[in-house]
Amino acid sequence: MADQLLYKNGVPIGKTYNNDIYGLARRINRFTREMFNSNSANYNSVDLADMLRFETFTAALLGYHDWFQAQPKLDTPETGKELMALSEKVVVPVIANESIYDLCVLMQIMHDELVSSDSSRRATNMEEYDSLRFNSYLARINSLMTEYIQSSEPLDQPQTSPNAEMNTNGRSGV
């Protein structure tokens, strides 16, 4: 009996055929975890170190995207139809910093759009319209960081703060 897969836009949920989207999805998930585990997630402002870190995350995503888009589309007659299992979807927890929460949600929407895109059925690269969609999400995330967060925080909200438990530390070292 064949496996019963659930599909969204012709791609099995939780899987992709596209090696480049596979790499991009992993990075988006990891950077999202970094964001909601940051120190700034626990209060109503974003520390400079965290903001610089978040900016490097979006720059790294753009750099990876631009690198693979500049590469030739590979001819993959034997391996192009092999499904790759995506890592488990990141569930963004409730955190005290609403702006970081918004960044994390945008990252996850971008992730979900990419893995459900037409390009997810290709072996490599992205269709131009999916590439534009990715760039639009990154531009919105960067705009939220530079035009809203950096100009409006810290926020003094004494009646409603803290609004969430302290987040946990990320993974510990060796």
Detail the poorly predicted runs: none
- Our count of domains comes out at 1
Structural shape: elongated
- The average pLDDT is 86
What's the Cα radius of gyration? 18 Å
* Helical/strand content category: mainly alpha
Count of discrete alpha- or pi-helical segments spanning 4 or more residues: 4
Q: Sheet with the most strands?
A: 2 strands, antiparallel
> Which percent range fits the helix content?
40-55%
Order of helices and strands: EEEHHEHH
- Terminal CA distance reads 44 Å
What is the tally of beta strands? 4
Strand residue content: under 5%
- In spatial order, strands of the major sheet run 1-2
3D architecture notes:
By secondary structure, the chain is mainly alpha-helical. It has one domain (7-74, 85-152). Helix content is 48%, strand content 5%. It has four helices and four strands. It has helices spanning 19-36, 48-70, 98-115, 128-152; strands at 7-8, 11-12, 15-16, 84-85. The strands form two sheets. Strands 1-2 form a two-stranded antiparallel ribbon. Strands 3-4 form a two-stranded antiparallel ribbon. A hairpin with a 2-residue loop joins strand 1 (7-8) and strand 2. Helix 1 packs antiparallel against helix 3, helix 2 (48-70) runs antiparallel to helix 4 (128-152) and helix 3 runs antiparallel to helix 4 (128-152). The model has no long low-confidence stretch (mean pLDDT 86).
